[in-house]
Amino acid sequence: MGGPLSGLVVLDLTQIYNGPYCTFLMAAAGADVIKVEPPGGEHLRKRTVAAASRLPYANLNAGKRSLRLDLRQDAGRDILLRLADKADVLVENFAPGVTERLGIGAGVVRARNPRIVYASSSGYGSEGPYRDYPAMDLTVQAMSGIMSVTGFPGQPPVKAGPAVCDFMTGIHLYGAIVTALLERARTGQGGHVEVAMMDACYFSLASNLGMVHAGSSSETTRTGNRHGGLSLCPYNVYPSADGYIAIIVNNDSHWRQLLAAFGQERLAEDPRYRTNADRVRNMDEVDELVGSWTRPHTRTECFERLVRHRVPSAPVRDLGEVMLDPHLHARGMLAWSEHPEYGRLVAAASPLRFDGAVSRPERPSVALGADGASVLAEKLGLSECELATLANDKVI
Amino acid sequence: MGGPLSGLVVLDLTQIYNGPYCTFLMAAAGADVIKVEPPGGEHLRKRTVAAASRLPYANLNAGKRSLRLDLRQDAGRDILLRLADKADVLVENFAPGVTERLGIGAGVVRARNPRIVYASSSGYGSEGPYRDYPAMDLTVQAMSGIMSVTGFPGQPPVKAGPAVCDFMTGIHLYGAIVTALLERARTGQGGHVEVAMMDACYFSLASNLGMVHAGSSSETTRTGNRHGGLSLCPYNVYPSADGYIAIIVNNDSHWRQLLAAFGQERLAEDPRYRTNADRVRNMDEVDELVGSWTRPHTRTECFERLVRHRVPSAPVRDLGEVMLDPHLHARGMLAWSEHPEYGRLVAAASPLRFDGAVSRPERPSVALGADGASVLAEKLGLSECELATLANDKVI
After folding, report:
1. Helix/strand/coil for A195
2. Does B1 fall in a domain?
3. Which of A233, A316, B44, B82 could be B142's S-S partner, Cβ–Cβ 3.0 to 4.6 Å?
């Protein structure tokens, strides 16, 4: 037990990535998260027939209890509402209008329990002309402009590899919920909080939006791994003997340090490269030059030289390396663990660190409905007989 | 006034994107955010000599007060510590060790004011072997594996266009701070919260990490705009007469709807494409086919057909379109405003929506040190004479 959110009860109706990341963070911070799933399980759980979905499912649903509940039956809806009467938070990321159709919308729930924080998330929000557009990470990446600024010039737009729209939204939703709980501590009243995926991504495009604002053209350009405004050089990803290395030269001291790192001090006073303005003017040439210095060495050799000379840089690592990263394991962000259903896997902790403590839920993700009986007995006092009837009617 | 965080005083020592996004969200939620800047202003403010940095600066620093303070002078440090005695939150995103060297580390500040929440953010965290590695959005994108999964197969890795590592971290930091404030409401004690950029990005790679977990190889592959696991088809970005359109077919009903959208119903029973497994097997052919249907139409025509037939899709929009988006303006996420220094610009609201209210700070970002005298008079009761001495000594 313990954790800053301990004692809070969260009804979690979410699915896939966005909502479940939000409630994972709540579980890791000590909340009692009751994952309410439809009879077949939530979408991501259903996908765990494929091995590739098991790690995401396990990590995102660690520390949560599972209650199977058919909300399309009156008895199921009734149970949900009675649970909401005793809960502190209800979280959902259905398409707008779905909870209202199920009879568990914010209006109904908040009328019964004014202390509850009801949290909703969707692609475009519950209002506005795009409200009912279908939304998934890929489509929001397209609509939000993320794709338009990702990739190489002269080539098609490309999505950011990570599901940035889903996860950006999940953590915003967490922030909104906890903010409303803080206000409740003062006023005694809950509220309805909402985060749209489109909104949650907007600020991350700050540099690129700044370029649009500054320029006369509304067209955005892709700059590959170069600086978004093409106003710093070197700023790129360079080839090495065994992969790539990212290097940023923010100022002329960094440039001289970079020269020293590769024994090129003789270029320090070369007028073609002396100032950032000079280097930007000769960007192709400078990038070619830097690449010729990095290419003979491994990523690690390059990185060690650059760190020694205090030049901002990093190897481009693949995810196999990241999952086994000594730093992430040393700090407890990652740890090997044995999952009862999925076997040995790398479990991830919450990125939120309170007083240095690592928050990684001890209890692994559980099978569909594993906690149904105990949750309903504990929260609603249902008897064995009532539980048997509900199970018989396929409500739970 | 108003807002769920009203009444809270936040000392904001942050710079560029990560920290300032966190404190922007606090200001938008009603907190009194005092931006403490070095004599020359924070890095992003200095960059506003270039037009492209003005919009980001204005949006990220709206609603904050500005206090110029030289922390390297004893008198400056003393003022900071006295302000911290009366503050609820102190936020900083310096490299690890910097606040300690300045004499304003968490230990010193929390010993004087145990109610304060001290919040720190850095690239790799305050512990572990990579602690002192230089960290910026680009280098963390390299190190975290984001680049390795972004881009087209057979081509170099590429960064995600938006500054995802910076902004992901800023919103996580917000979540951590508000969580600690909620705990303080119960215990009376503040705490030290921390978010590392590496940690904050990790979960967004869930799908890609799942592939690594499932496969025997640790090598990650780039799939361009195709599904990360190459297990859904169509799932791609297709050419249109005036740009690109993203389309996702999650199941065989979506496939039939897609056929109907483009008058291709005759293919419904074609054994090469009938099930998702069939289409995945013939992925190149299917992508070619879908592209031939979308290519003659504009993005808008394609999107309208697809929405009408309920196929998940979205046009790939550029940022000029996003900044003028009727939906974002209708919902109040964006609004034209007149900035006293930078002129007419599109101001952005907080993505956190409480009870339907739009939270966009009314007061625009201010000039460096604009609120120094009023903050110091109000918080520390400094006299005109004392303020004049501090100004004369270049402390403020």
Report:
1. strand
2. no
3. A316
What does R_g of chain B's alpha carbons equal in angstroms?
25
Look at residues A152, A225, A206 and name the one whose alpha carbon lies nearest to residue B142. A225
The string of pLDDT tens digits covering residues A120-169 is: 999 999 999 999 999 999 999 999 999 999 999 889 999 999 999 999 99
Residues A185 and A271 in one domain: no
**C-beta of residue A352 within 8 angstroms of C-beta of residue A28:** yes
B357 touching chain A per CB within 8 A: no
**pTM for the whole structure:** 0.98
How many structural domains are present in chain B?
2
Structural domain of B18 = 9-202+325-392
Cis peptide before B234 (omega within 30 of 0): yes
CA distance A269 to chain B (A): 26
Q: Quick check: helix, strand or coil at residue A280?
A: helix
* Rounded Cα–Cα distance for residues A133 and A259 (Å): 52
* ipTM higher than threshold 0.90: yes
DSSP A356: T
Q: Which residue has the tokens 């492209």?
A: B52
Alpha-carbon separation of residue B201 from B123, B138, B146, B149, B286 (angstroms):
11, 13, 8, 13, 33
Out of A316, A345, A376, a domain closes at A316
Question: How many whole angstroms separate alpha carbon A266 and alpha carbon A283?
Answer: 19
- The answer to whether B27 contacts chain A (CB < 8 Å) is no
Rounded to the nearest 10 degrees, what angle do helices B18-28 and B54-61 cross at?
Answer: 50
What are residue B196's DSSP bridge partners?
B122
Q: What is the CATH number of the domain that holds A309?
A: 3.30.1540.10
Residues B294 and B161 in one domain: no
- Residues in B touching A152 (Cβ below 8 Å): 151, 155, 158
**What is the per-residue burial (b if ≥16 Cβ within 10 Å, else e) of A197-207?**
bbbbbbbbbbb
The span from the CA of A250 to the CA of B135, in Å, is 12
- The number of beta carbons lying within 10 Å of the beta carbon of residue A384 is 9
Q: Which residue has the tokens 């996908």?
A: A47
Measured on CA atoms in the order A95, A57, A117, B6, is the torsion positive or negative? Answer: negative
Q: What is the DSSP letter of A357?
A: B
What pLDDT does A221 receive? 77
Examine the pLDDT at A1 and tell me if it is beyond 60: no
Amino acid, res. B320 = G
Question: Tokens representing B382?
Answer: 């400094």
**CA A24/CA A57 separation, integer angstroms:** 11
Asked if residue B119 is part of any domain, the answer here is yes
List the 237-256 stretch of A: residues with Cβ below 8 A of B. Answer: 237, 239, 244-246, 248
Clarify whether residues A58 and A155 are in a common domain.
yes
What is the H or E stretch that residue A243 is in?
Answer: strand A243-248
The separation between CA A11 and the C-alpha centre of its own chain, rounded to angstroms, equals 20
Does A100 map to a domain?
A: yes
What sections of B324-362 are H helices per DSSP? Answer: 326-330
**Domain closes at, from B316, B340, B358:** B316
Q: How confident is the model at residue B221 (pLDDT cuts 50, 70, 90)?
A: confident
Active-site choice (A43, A172, A192, A227): A227
Residues of B in contact with A228 (CB under 8 A): 161
